[in-house]
Structures are given as structure tokens and as C-alpha cells.
Amino acid sequence: MINKAILVGRLGADPDVRYTPDGMMVTNFRIATDMQWKDKSGERVNRTEWHKIVTFGKLAEICNSYLSKGKLVYIEGRIQTRAWDDKDGVKRYTTEIVANDMKMLDSKGQTKGMDNQGTEEHIPAYSEAIPEEDVPF
After folding, report:
1. Where do the H-state alpha helices sit in the chain?
2. Quick check: is 42 in a domain?
């Protein structure tokens, strides 16, 4: 069976960082993807879809260091739905992409990682398969 998502979109905000009880960094962020088409009357219609992304470990560190609101990124990972009970005891669900690959797609000069001379630092792409048993949920 295959569970794979590939997305290219822009971050809606800077990544949110937290840590698991054993100290592993986790970043969460949302990216927007757009779809455009013409309706029956010939008018252009634009639809934006928001996707929750979660990263762990080294990939989370890279995302925290180099990603910021508005950055264009390629994300690859698996789709995961989690359930929990809120403070009122109501069952809640969320669907997210657990990323194992991220590439920055912005052109030079539009990156967060600039050195003091205004030239671009090397910004790593990162791909890591995270075994399901290592995901702390």
C-alpha cells in the first residue's frame, strides 16, 4: 500500500517549534496550494487549499532555520489523521502531512539564510525516512 503526498506551496506563517518529552524537535507549519480554472461563464476561479505539515528531528531543525512565511517549498511525506479529546471531552480530528523531504524552491536572494555580505548561504535540502515507530504520537 502507498501513503504519499507531494505538495508545492507557500508557508502561511513561520514554523512553530516544540519538543517531544525526549527532546526531539518538532516543527509545524501550514502551506497553501492554489488551483485555478474557468467556470461555465468563463470567469476565472481561484481556490486555495491549506495543508498542515509536521516535521521531526533534523528535518525540523532545518525547517526552523530556513523556512519563513511566504517561502515556496516542495514537501513530500505521508498523510496522517490523529484523534484526541478536547477539554470538553469532544472527539477532535486533524489530518496532516508528516514530511520526510523538503526542498526550498525560492530563487536566489529570497531566502532566510543570507550571510552578512548579502550572498546566499548553502541551504540544504533534506530527505529522511522516519520510521513510523519513531513518530511520537
Report:
1. 57-66
2. no
